Amino acid sequence: LGLSIEDDLARRDLTINAIAYDPIAKYLVDPFDGIEDLQNKIIRAVGSAKARFNEDGLRIMRAARFAARFGYSIEHDTFQGMIDSIETLKSVSKERVQDELCKTLMTRSPSLGLQLLLQCGALHIASPRLTNSLESFNNINKLNQCHGQLETRLAVLFSAMEVIQVQKELVSLKFA
Deepest of 2, 30, 115, 130, by most Cβ within 10 A of its Cβ? Predict the structure, then answer.
């Protein structure tokens, strides 16, 4: 019951993750133009963005993380798919959400990832108290200047919140 490589790649979330290379045969398979998207610094869903994000709501957060990690933009239809599929994020476990949020914080441009998550509505689902804090946090770009470990970046992220709210959010996100 083996899938062809093209069928396997069609099930991936983003075009930049839907590229395969056989080093022995020196054969590259790129049916969704992922290399072109890499060259153009664009995050694009494979096929229908809404379909990809509906398969797994965490893919919404992954798209924002990849944009933050590489400094890429998210293609318009892909971003619209993130917005249109936002309800699927509610069915993702808080542990997986926490892991993706932490990975976003550890990128070279965490503020970009957080802004994308704010704009598409994912951060409100993932961390509503944090969303309220970030909307009034005047300098989200401070996170880009923070080069510490995860704990330091979390401290900067939550610095505009009251301690009781931070505690509640950390418990909600399964840190405690």
Answer: 130
Q: Which of 37, 34, 102 has its CA nearest to residue 68?
A: 102
Gap between the terminal Cα atoms of the chain: 43
| C-alpha distances out from residue 67 to 2, 24, 28, Å | 32, 31, 24
Exposure string for 144-161, b = 16+ CB within 10 A, e = fewer: eebeeeeeebbebbbebb
pLDDT digits (tens, 9 = 90+) for 116-148: 999 999 999 998 888 877 765 556 777 888 888
> Are 57 and 85 within 8 A, CB to CB?
yes
